[in-house]
Amino acid sequence: GKLICSDIGEDNVEELNIIQKGRNYGWPLREGTFEFQLDPNKFSLLTLDSKDDGFTYPVAQFDHQEGRAVLGGYVYGGSRHPLLHGKYVFGEIVSGHLYYVDAADLSLGKVLPIQKLSVQMNGNPTTMEQVAQSGRVDLRLGRDLDGELIIMEKAQGRCYCPRGPPTPARRRRHLTARLAPGSPRPRRGSSPPSRPGPGRPSR
C-alpha cells in the first residue's frame, strides 16, 4: 500500500506526498516543486531547473489561487459511486473544494494533475460554501464501514453522505456527486487559520 500524506503549505503551494522511510521532503528549502525563499522580504517561488537534488517531491499539488489548506482524504472503495472507485478523494479546508486523483497512478517522480469533484444538492449544482452558508467551510472527510464517503463541514456542524452514482459533467475532468443531508455533528473547536499566499507561483 501507499502512505499518502497531505502537507499544508506556508505561502504558495499545497501538496500530497507519498511517505517512505528516510526520504527528505524538502522543508524548509522546498515548497512543492519550488524553491522556498527563506528571506521574509521575498515572496516569490523559483521553479527548479533540476529535481536531482536529494529531495522527494509531491505526487500532486496546487497553489493558493486554488486553495489555501489541503485536506487529506481516502481512496474510495464503496459501491454507490462506481466512477470514484480507486480514486483518492481529498479536499481544501477553507473553501470546501473537493478533488481526486487516480490512486494507482500516484508514484514518486511525477506530479499528477488534480481533478475537481463537483457536488449537487437536491439535484442542483452547488458548492460547499453554499452548503455551509459560509466562506469558511472547515471541510473534513471520513468514510463509513462500507467505504462510502462522508463529507463534513464545521461551519454549520453537519455531515453529508453523497448518494446516487456520479455522472460525467460537461467537462470531462469533473465528476458530479449528489449530496444528501446527514446527521448534524457537534462543533469541536476550529481549524487553525490559514495564511493567504502572495499569489500564484510562476511555472
Secondary-structure map:
Elements: E1 4-7, E2 13-18, E3 30-31, E4 34-35, E5 46-47, E6 60-63, E7 70-75, E8 87-92, E9 98-102, E10 115-121, E11 124-126, H1 128-132, E12 139-143, E13 149-153, E14 158-168, E15 175-184
Parallel strand pairs: 10-15
Antiparallel strand pairs: 1-2, 2-6, 3-4, 4-5, 7-8, 8-9, 9-10, 10-11, 12-13, 13-14, 14-15
Largest beta-sheet details: 9 strands, mixed
Counting helices, strands and paired strands, the structural category is mainly beta
Tell me the overall shape: globular
In N-to-C order, the SSE pattern is EEEEEEEEEEEHEEEE
Number of strands: 15
Task: Give the count of helical stretches.
Answer: 1
- The percentage helix is under 10%
Explain this structure to me?
By secondary structure, the chain is mostly beta strands. Helices cover 2% and strands 38% of the residues. The chain has 1 helix and 15 strands; from the N terminus they run βββββββββββαββββ. The strands form 3 sheets. Strands 7, 8, 9, 10, 11, 12, 13, 14 and 15 form a 9-stranded mixed beta sheet that branches. A 3-stranded antiparallel beta sheet has the order 1-2-6, with no helix packed on it. A hairpin with a 6-residue loop joins strand 14 and strand 15.
